[in-house]
Design goal:
By secondary structure, this protein is of the alpha/beta class. It contains eleven helices and seven strands. The protein is globular and about 65 Å long. The protein starts with 9 loop residues before the first strand and ends with a helix. It binds nicotinamide-adenine-dinucleotide.
């Protein structure tokens, strides 16, 4: 069901890789809600081809940009404004990658070149994106920027590795840049802290499947899926949330505020009895 929440709005969506990607779901919902947008991803991800199908379905233009490259990001904003005929109203940052996680390095013995890459790709890329937009005055007044994060920024999840540090930085950039963009342009910047979700980035984390089931059991509403996350993102892009900024918003079925659930207690009791 469409509410026309994004009718007349223009945006840029980073990070749709395949139909499992959270950004893919956001693009589908934003299209349903009447938005016009540019889809972007790292040039290598564009070459893999699937994003073309999404662009066609949504009538979106595809523009490649490495989110760790300032020139690419400036070109992205300049070309997006040309293609769409004006400033953008919303930006989704849905980017994450850790070479340490990929190569199975333990947190206590990370490779520091990899660590730099993790922080640059997964967190500083938000700063670079906002800085490019700021320099080019590319986001409309009352525009909305959303980045995706995970609760490992606040609590320890051992196998999340250096991505936990990247998410803490991402959330801090959200507050710091959110302040300046708020004062200068009434632009809002928020993070959504999402449940574990079965995507390429998500399932790359060691022990993901068991952890997914654990989080599902802990959350009073169960894990939030990518489609529900997309609904929440769209609400933050809409005019209904104009005064929400600099926040980390948990979208996790209640996981973040649950100490322990009865379902988990019962499970442990069964194990002890059996
Ligand atoms: N899947 C989960 O369990 C989960 C939970 C909470 C938060 N998140 C966050 O959601 C966001 C999206 O991840 P996802 O789960 O949809 O996985 P995904 O793998 O589908 O998306 C990650 C995206 O980052 C892009 N990317 C990587 N390096 C890039 C670069 N240099 N420049 C531009 N783009 C680059 C990839 O091409 C890909 O499209 C990430 O920030 C992730 O940390 C995911």
């Amino acid at each position: 069901m469409s509410y026309g929440l994004l009718k007349g709005k223009k945006g840029i969506i980073f990070g749709a890789l395949d139909p499992n990607s959270i950004a893919w779901h956001v693009a589908e919902k934003a299209h349903e809600e009447g938005a016009q947008f540019v889809l972007t991803n790292a040039p290598i991800a564009l070459r893999m081809g699937k994003i073309n199908e999404l662009a066609e379905k949504c009538g979106a233009t595809l523009i490649g940009a490495d989110a760790t490259n300032n020139e690419d990001l400036e070109k992205l904003f300049t070309q997006s404004m040309e293609v769409m005929g004006g400033k953008v109203d919303f930006v989704l940052h849905s980017i994450g990658m850790s070479p340490n996680v990929r190569k199975g390095k333990h947190y206590t013995g990370v490779d520091y070149d990899f660590y730099h890459k993790t922080l640059d790709i997964s967190a500083m890329s938000l700063h670079r994106t906002l800085a490019a937009a700021h320099k080019l005055d590319a986001i409309s007044d009352w525009g909305s920027v959303v980045a995706l994060t995970y609760i490992a920024a606040q609590r320890v999840f051992p196998d999340y590795n250096d991505m936990a540090d990247a998410k803490a930085l991402l959330e801090s950039i959200t507050r710091s840049f959110g302040y300046h963009l708020g004062v200068q342009k009434k632009i809002r910047v928020n993070t959504i802290s999402q449940s574990p979700t079965k995507t390429t980035a998500g399932t790359g984390v060691k022990g993901f499947d068991s952890f997914f089931d654990y989080a599902d059991m802990m959350s009073p509403l169960g894990n939030a899926d990518a489609g529900a996350c997309a609904d929440y993102v769209v609400s933050l892009f809409s005019d209904l949330t104009r005064y929400v900024t600099m926040q980390n918003l948990f979208h996790d079925g209640g996981f973040s505020f649950t100490g322990v659930s009865q379902a988990l207690v019962d499970r442990f009791s069964q194990q002890q009895e059996g």
